[in-house]
UniProtKB/TrEMBL annotation:
Highest taxon in the source lineage: Bacteria
Keywords for the protein's UniProt record, in alphabetical order: Activator, DNA-binding, Transcription, Transcription regulation
Protein source organism: Saccharothrix tamanrassetensis
Domain HTH araC/xylS-type: 183-280
Family annotation (Pfam families): AraC_binding, HTH_18
Protein name as catalogued: AraC-like DNA-binding protein
PANTHER family per UniProt: HTH-TYPE TRANSCRIPTIONAL ACTIVATOR RHAS-RELATED, TRANSCRIPTIONAL REGULATORY PROTEIN
One GO MF term: DNA-binding transcription factor activity
Amino acid sequence: MRTKSDERGAWNPLTSLSGARAAQRLRFGGGAAGIERMEAALAGEAFSPHRHDTYAIGMTTAGVQTFRYRGALRHCLPGEWHVLHPDELHDGAAGTDGGFGYRIIYLDPALVQDALGGRPLPFVADPVIRGVGTAVAGWLAHIDEPLDDVEAVEVTAAVADLLSRHSSERPAARAALDLDAVRRVRALLLDDVTSRHSVQEFERVAGMDRWAVARQFRAAFGTSPTRFRTMRQLDLARRLMRAGRPLGEVAAAVGFADQSHLTRMFKRAYGLTPAAWAAAVRR
């Protein structure tokens, strides 16, 4: 997997991070709405336990990647892939002193829903797999290239098919979802991520009671309405941080109580403090 950035000297964790007790370097590539691609080089204890509300499909490119997931320690070797379901707690660390590297796609579960025609979200019980085919691998080979609308659809379809092939659950295992209803709740949350909405608002826009909203939103999108909103706040926070805004100012702008609140939520989502994440991002 070589790209133009590789030719410019992309990181090799087995050399540039060798001997570091803990180091993180992150580089974001071209993406699209609901799709994020990233390359990472890490050493030591890379990420504390955290969870995000997207699917994460990545390939180890160098070294040994270890992570705890659903009560077990996993190892992902070069050329192997890991598939993490939304809202599943996991950490991340180097399996050797030399560190490790990987490339990854983060995909909005709503896009997977669209690609699967509303079927329940696939769940891959064993997160380490040894072959995903060229349809998915190709989208991580050149992460610096932008994605147009057609390519975004192709990425989503390839990942949705991969998830379905490896899923441990059959579609009949869950009741039918009222996707139109929960999409209206999702749209309400996206309309203003800095504001809190009442449960009565959810009931009004969905046309169902609060318990059905909570259950069906998670079944459709892999997380709760509250956590979905928090993650969108953090998306906005990351954009402001990369623009150089001070953390206290960022916290206020995205609707957190203060900088400490932002820091707690950020670390729970990404396994790094905002300061550590900002220092790791390669511009």
